[in-house]
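FIELD: query
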Amino acid sequence: MLDIDVIRADPEKIRDMLIKRNKTTERLDRLLEADGEWRKLTNENNQLRKTRNAVSLEIGKMPKGAEKDAKIKEMRGVGDQIAANDARMAELDAIRKDCLLNIPNIPADDVPVGKDDTENVEVKVWGEKRKFDFTPKNHAQLMLDLDMVDFDRATKIAGSGFYCLKGDGARLERALICFFLDMHRKQGYKEVFTPVIVNTAAVTGTGQYPNLKDDMYHLERDDMWLNPTAEVPVTNLLQGDILSKEDLPVKLTAYLPSFRREVGKHADTAGIIRVHEFNKVEMVRFEEPSKSWEALEEMRGNAEELLQLLGLPYHVLLLCTGDQSFSCAKCYDLEVWAPGEGRYLECSSCSNDLDFQARRAMIKYRPEPHLKSEFVHTLNGSGLALPRTMVAVLENYQNADGSVTIPEVLRPYMGGQEKIVPPETKKTF
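FIELD: result
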């Protein structure tokens, strides 16, 4: 959430920002109108209370009589006006809060201006794309041939957009998760395992609510939400806290399943690239404001290291204003090359949200014991997201005989197994 003083100081800067983010300016206009009236009534009530206090002192010294009765009646009228103003100010404050919750973060100065993902800027390319001497299969065909997945049985129990890993498919996914978590621990992150179900305060704190409420699964009876991304529960672990300077930085990592309705998107596309439920390992950092930009580059490097150790070609994109997520000020996307698909697939987004989330979730730190508390800066990054990383592993490491070579860094997590081979005979399950 933006500081309302920032909006008041330069509303045209915010208007320009919204246009660059492909957002309407309707809520900004509504906010400015409501805030203007709220401030006017605040000043009016302050003056009315000052007058009432002064006159009340006079009334106390006045003798009984018509003049005193008139003053008392007059002050009752002032009290009624104060109450009416307070009621209206409460309505205006609700409008202000709603507008503030729906205005996105301000992009950093070095974020390119653009309308959509076609105007993102490639800032790095790593690895050589493999040249095949056979026609590579896509991941869906590979997984079916290797008996790693069952789409039909998953649809039977949950509907389209879900899948069931089995055998080496389930083992490979678990190996990737364990590898990611172990690497992040070496990189200085503390592992946590949080609830998967979160409350409205949590999704509001990180900016998914109300902005993305239609893309989340809502448990209406309990007013709870299925975790849309581990960023939500992990960031909100510090909701309402005031940290000391010595506490920072806080670096956390977590594996959690994530759930998205994918409204308006084709969640039932063949394969596991866009689905309703997926696993992800997340990095979350809480930093002093002066150190958050350096932390973003380090976090991006932490995610890149995983792809490099897996030997997967990838590139890094700096997202333009029109493709940034709601809460971030600057975001890098890591996209891994999937030869069977013939395209790059996003497997990580690393973002600096500055104090935007911290202001919503009231996460502060005290620079010095005697100084006023300030908002921390929050950062988050996928490290990495599945199943797209699995897609890239399968498609990049496939062999002409239909087998898939397991990357060396994953073999210790799979009992030393070197390859996934097609079964001699396929059983019912």
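FIELD: remark
The radius of gyration is 28 Å.
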